[in-house]
Amino acid sequence: MDQVKIGKFISEKRKEAGLTQAQLAEKLGITDRAVSKWETGRSLPDAAIMMDLCVVLKITVNDLLSGEEVSMENYNKKTDKVLIEMVRQKEEADKRLLSLEVVIGVISTVFLFVMVLLGAYLQVLKAPVWVTVVLIAVGFVQFIIAVAFALKIEQVAGYYECPECGFRYVPSLSAVNLAPHLGRTRRMKCPNCGKKAWQKKVISKE
Predict the structure, then answer these.
(1) Coil, helix or strand for 80?
(2) What's the CA gap between 164 and 196, in Å, rounded?
(3) Is 88's pLDDT higher than 70?
(4) Pair type for strands 181-182 and 168-169
(5) H/E run at residue 147
(6) Which of 188, 126, 128 is nearest to 161 (CA)?
(7) Domain 3-70: which topology?
(8) How many CB atoms lie within 10 A of CB 109?
(9) Is the pLDDT of residue 179 over 80?
């Protein structure tokens, strides 16, 4: 999706409706700064208010995501194009998230290792025990936080595929946390066929 084109379209339709950015923001229960970001192409409206925005501007969601009014002749073609682009963007975002997960894991592990080594070195130098305890505690706390964040990323980015029935889905966070795993492959119960199996992480829905 072309955010700049969508932003210009929102601006055009807002002006046609005789609304200022502040007035449109007030109708939607948001700040005029958010409207300004849309119109300059820096962000897109959240899905939660997209329908309300379309009602106010008297356009369809397809018009909004296309950045132009879509004629009935081209409606299905435009709809397909928008949906395909949305899927592509989600897949790209998921790939970036999974890469971020790796970076978080590496950095947090190295930081923990450094804190433990530093604590041990300070003991050799006869530093107070509490200093070592604090350093190691800091290392473990950041590691636990990083692991929790990485698990959340793994849950929401992409899908898990059941090898028994081929069903692809996003599991609950608790299912991901409790499942035995080898890398990103986890042994979980498929919500479609009900069988437990080692399920691989995949990016696309189909």
Answers:
(1) helix
(2) 9
(3) yes
(4) unpaired
(5) helix 129-156
(6) 188
(7) 434 Repressor (Amino-terminal Domain) (1.10.260)
(8) 14
(9) yes
| Identity of the residue numbered 138 | V
CA 181, CA 64: separation in Å to the nearest integer?
42
101-108's contacts with Cβ under 8 Å and 24+ in sequence apart are 101/150, 101/153, 101/154, 101/157, 104/146, 104/149, 104/150, 104/153, 105/146, 105/147, 105/150, 107/146, 108/142, 108/143, 108/146, 108/147
Look up the pTM and report it: 0.58
Pairwise CA distance, residues 97 & 156, whole Å: 9
Report which of 78, 24, 79 is spatially closest to residue 7, judged by C-alpha positions: 24
Rounded Cα gap, residues 24 and 15, in angstroms: 10
- Listed by start position, the domains of the chain span 3-70, 87-148, 159-202
Contacts of 118 (CB under 8 A, 6+ apart): 135
Task: Report the b/e string of 132-143 with b at 16+ CB within 10 A.
Answer: beebbeebeeeb
Contacts of 26 (CB under 8 A, 6+ apart): none
| Euclidean distance between CA atoms 143 and 156, whole angstroms | 20
**Token duo for residue 58:** 């008297």
Beta strand spans in the chain (E): 159-161, 168-169, 181-182, 185-189, 196-202
The pLDDT tens digits of the residues spanning 45-67 come to 887 788 889 999 998 888 888 88
Of 174, 205, 203, 204, residue with least CA distance to 99: 203
Which token pair is 57? Answer: 């501007």
